[in-house]
Amino acid sequence: MVTGMGVCSPIGNDLETVARALQSGQGGIAPVPEWTDRFAMNTGVAGLVSGIERRSYPRRKVRTMGRVALLATHASEAAVADAGLDASLLGNGRVGLAYGSTHGSSAETEAYCREVFREDSLQGIAGSHFLKFMSHTCAANLAEFFGIRGRVQPTCSACTSGSQAIGAGYEAVRYGMADVMIVGGAEEAHFIPAGVFDVMFAASSKYNATPESTPRPFDAARDGVVIGEGAGTLVLERLDHARRRNATIHAELLGYATSCDGIHLTKPSWEGMVRCMQLGLRAAGVEASEVDYVNAHGTATELGDIAESRATAEVFGARTPVSTQKSYTGHTLGACGALESVFSLLMMARRFIAPNRNLKQVDPRCAMLDYVRGDARTANLDVIASNNFAFGGINTSLVFRRL
């Protein structure tokens, strides 16, 4: 059961603000002139989070945190409060944590390397600096922040980091290894991950002067990925445990699947996507016809959009509504699976589907689907599938049900 949710994102840092943005079609992409001016990058836009500052926390709590862990902390504090978890419960050994990011903090990695290579010396480097950018910085810092004594499982699989963390928590609760799991993913916007897509000619660059016009998933005029930042956190809990606490239950995480294409590191396989979606439905015990909405990965890359649309059509047909929130936030990489799960549950609770922003003309090479466009669509969403796909051919599918 999902008993807590928290976010920070380019479209808001609390559930109500985010829900309003999704319902009104309000995006959060902004110009980042430093990337083009200083680093000679083609892309100059990103989805940025504002209002989350280190000074909001005691220094001893954040001294080992880079920005990515700080974003994770904000979202997780909100989720823990939403779930009503107190300190005694958090530290009882039966509460665990699974949290992911692409590779820790890019900004702290840059700062560390610049300092070392400037003088070719480690003199003056703080002993705590590594803790800010290690790959499991989010999970480790959150565990200390909340006093977690149960299992702590970091995930690091690029764009499926957040959804695999949710899956790890789901399995831990389902198989009795924890009563409660705090799960999610976070990412910070930085020129290093943006540059990865830039040098692959997969980053958006045509709309630097009009950032509200990009990204454009599934659109014929799309021109690539827009990097975003943020964090999403869910609290997962056994039903009997939640009921004993009189906890509010947002939804049930009904099924989870993850698989690998095993073919190519960057070229997506639509057959692999199909297999993962089918495994997710099988784990959830539902038919494709029972799914009321598919939350797509939708990166706005040519190969990704075409493959995903084909796979979605193969599994769900042409009538199931489809949209992606990357058109609002940009691609938040390790955070996207968690953020999009929260977005899905907000839409489920408020009975609407957020439209695809910037989808004016569907690329004719994409499969025929019910792409939600224009205004938000009123809908009763009892079952939602949320899909994510990552470099390495890694696939995930999460299935949620209203209670």
From TrEMBL:
- Which Pfam families does its entry note? ketoacyl-synt, Ketoacyl-synt_C
Entry keyword annotation includes Repeat: no
Q: Enumerate the spans annotated as Ketosynthase family 3 (KS3) domain.
A: 1-402
Concerning SMART domains, the annotation shows:
PKS_KS
Which GO terms are recorded in the biological process aspect for this UniProt protein?
fatty acid biosynthetic process
Presence of the UniProt keyword Transferase in the record: yes
Identify the keywords attached in UniProt to this record, alphabetized: Transferase
Q: Which GO terms describe its cellular component?
A: cytosol
UniProt-recorded Gene Ontology molecular function terms = 3-oxoacyl-[acyl-carrier-protein] synthase activity
Q: Which SUPFAM superfamilies match?
A: Thiolase-like
Q: Which domain of life is it from?
A: Bacteria
The UniProt similarity line reads: Belongs to the thiolase-like superfamily. Beta-ketoacyl-ACP synthases family.
The record's listing under NCBIfam families reads:
PRK09116.1 (NF006587)
Task: Write down what this protein is called.
Answer: 3-oxoacyl-(Acyl carrier protein) synthase
Q: What is the lineage of its organism?
A: Bacteria, Pseudomonadati, Myxococcota, Polyangia, Nannocystales
